[in-house]
Design a protein that fits this description.
By secondary structure, this protein is of the alpha+beta class. Helix content is about 30%, strand content about 35%. It is built from two helices and six strands. It has helices at about 70-80, 100-120; strands at about 5-10, 20-25, 30-35, 40-50, 55-60, 85-90. A six-stranded mixed beta sheet has the order 1-2-3-6-4-5, with helices on one face. Helix 1 packs parallel to helix 2 (about 100-120). The N and C termini lie close together (about 5 Å).
């Protein structure tokens, strides 16, 4: 598989609604996880190593942002499945966020990643 059609998925509603979009860059994949206040909070890059049959992921996070776990989760899981380089950018902001909203957003992002993986087939 060399090219994946662009995808735009949504999960949740109200303050915890998040979206996932994808775009192919040659054989590589660019993934965005965001809400209505989209920004660059963290960037994760994952590379699949065929010899070791595993993905290796690195993350950069902007000062004061906490999007790193979502960026990591997306890049790592999608790379492991597709066995291709994946760059994930996460930028989800919510004023006066509660612990329950954080949990819902992280869960919704996980659902989006799983849904994308299920529909993308395997390489």
């Amino acid at each position: 598989m060399t090219d994946i059609k662009p995808v735009l998925l949504h999960e949740g509603d109200g303050r915890t609604k998040v979206s996932l979009s994808t775009h192919s860059i040659g054989n590589d994949l660019f993934v965005r996880l965001f809400n209505s206040q989209e920004h660059i909070g963290a960037v994760a890059l994952s590379e699949y190593h065929f010899g070791e049959q595993r993905a290796s992921t690195s993350v950069l996070t902007r000062f004061g942002h906490r999007d790193d776990s979502i960026a990591y989760m997306a890049a790592y899981q999608i790379c492991r499945h597709l066995k291709k380089p994946v760059c994930a950018i996460a930028g989800i902001h919510l004023d006066d966020i509660t612990e329950e909203e954080i949990e819902a957003i992280v869960s919704n992002c996980g659902i989006l990643i799983d849904r994308f993986i299920e529909t993308s087939g395997s390489s």
